[in-house]
Structure of Homogentisate 1,2-dioxygenase:
Amino acid sequence: MANLKYLSGFGSEFSSEDPRRPGALPEGQNSPQRCAYGLYAEQLSGSAFTASRTENRRSWLYRIRPSVIHKPFVRSKISEHLTHKWDDEEPNPNQSRWLPFDIPTQGSVDFASGLHTVCGAGDPRSRHGIAIHVYLCNTSMENSAFYNSDGDFLIVPQQGTLNITTEFGKMEIRPNEIAVIQQGMRFAVAVDGPTRGYILEVFDGHFKLPDLGPIGANGLANPRDFLTPVAYYEDKEVPDFKIINKYQGALFEAVQGHSPFDVVAWHGNYVPYKYDLSKFMVINSVSFDHCDPSIFTVLTCPSTKPGVAIADFVIFPPRWSVQENTFRPPYYHRNCMSEFMGLILGSYEAKEGGFLPGGASLHSMMTPHGPDAQCFVGASKEKLVPQKIAVGTQAFMFESSLSMAITKWGVETCKKLDGNYYQCWHNLPKLFSDKIDI
Ligand SMILES: O=C(O)Cc1cc(O)ccc1O
Ligand SMILES: [Fe+2]
């Protein structure tokens, strides 16, 4: 999908018309008695009608047919590994690390059928919780569209470009870019070959840009770098277009006789968007010590507790490391939050081996972790000259205030859990001595 156009801004009021039908957007009102070109008006609400102005999210779609024309939903069997069953496995506080998840090489698996849940917590019925999935696929979705009634998807491609058609238009997302597709938005994913990536799903609310506090008005992910598609419609009649719905953690499908990507024009502030992680303005210590990784937060889904996130999306981008008299890699720590990490490109400074692109790690609540022995020894002795670090790499973290369970697929079926992970810390030397200055 070359030469796609986008609208720039985060949380803005946008409007867009497919240029093939100028004047499709009503002027000065949302619901005219008859819409231009015989279109139907449909509102998609992403917040309670009565939410405050700052929280209110809705869009108006002007479409060939309203979404309601479909046969009844029935249970879908397309992915047996998408689940919110958090009690299938016994709780396990150990450090967990997965080798790269396998992309299917046999048979045709598309994005929707390639969804596998690794871990999560909470419940979409009470609108509180998260799920972390990976998608492992090799084929484009054909005559089918997906929407999620349970929450929002933050999609992190690791291998392969995603060509995403949405009701709002088309987006192309390559590794080192992310996409957010919010609750209810219909989309279909086309791929070029073997494709893998991670998804953070939040049930509670929508992603926001973090407050910048003393950083000031600019920095981290800047609002204008978020891109939303422009209106694009297809007038396509097919006997069996499949609408796949994730509802209360289960998949359903309904058949309809036309493509749902029939939105000729739309306006509003409830939209899908993408962001190129290389545009992140990195802020860090330029004197001494190691900043907490919250300094690298791209997007956050806040909880109702001040300063506590349901989940943050944090990256570890290429940057200059200049701190003096400092152990520069991550410190050893125990955290009241859960840390799920993935690797898009390259390697991660705290674990040069074993944590690989397309793999993952989970350090659960209060489970100790930190640099492996090799990293500690190297960083304790290195000459502290200014150094460009993480060049050609991109690791990320989904950090959550919820205590997550790993699914049966994550523990057993995927066969990627690295039982020897704990050993990476076992060669940490005992350096204690009676000399103050070692
Ligand atoms: O555990 C990790 O590797 C993530 C992380 C990085 C960092 O720089 C500080 C704290 C932290 O949890
Ligand atoms: Fe950590």
